[in-house]
Write a structure and sequence with these properties.
Strand content: under 5%
Structural class: mainly alpha
Radius of gyration: 21 Å
Largest sheet: none
Number of helices: 8
Length: about 150
């Protein structure tokens, strides 16, 4: 059995060990024994996971902003604001590591907005919500720590 065959078998049996072995193979620059097809698959999977995380965090951020701005429930404000700040912080970290994902956030903003409106309406059917996003103009403003200061009464 060749090292490539071992890598192919390892991929289906123990993914973490496959990662370690692949990293070692790359460090040795032993490109002949790389499991290239699975390596490509894993790299694309990482990109997709990062994109899903941006969409998910943007959805949560917008949902909590909607609740904080339009749902009259003062006892919940602090919790909603904590969630807003946490999502902003995590998005800033993601964009610091991968600045191109900020452009992706702009691309999927309408989808995240639509999902957030649906969720908030389902939980608060009597609350009148805006039809369009009007709070900020840019992703940078949306993830800015100063945004929460604008929410306080």
């Amino acid at each position: 059995m060749t090292p490539t065959d071992v890598a192919l078998n390892l991929y289906g049996q123990d993914l973490d060990l496959w990662y370690q072995e692949t990293a070692t193979t790359l460090q040795k620059r032993d490109f002949r024994h790389l499991d290239v097809d699975h390596l490509i698959e894993e790299i694309l999977s990482l990109s997709n996971r990062n994109r899903r995380e941006v969409l998910s965090r943007l959805d949560v951020l917008l949902s909590h902003l909607l609740k904080r701005l339009y749902v009259p429930s003062t006892p919940d404000y602090r919790g909603w604001e904590n969630t807003i700040r946490e999502q902003q912080k995590q998005l800033r970290r993601i964009f610091q590591d991968s600045p191109s994902l900020k452009g992706y956030a702009r691309q999927i903003f309408d989808q995240a907005w639509s999902d957030a409106i649906v969720d908030v309406k389902a939980n608060y059917p009597d609350v009148e919500l805006p039809q369009a996003w009007t709070l900020t103009e840019t992703i940078d403003e949306l993830i800015s720590p100063e945004l929460c200061l604008k929410l306080s009464p």
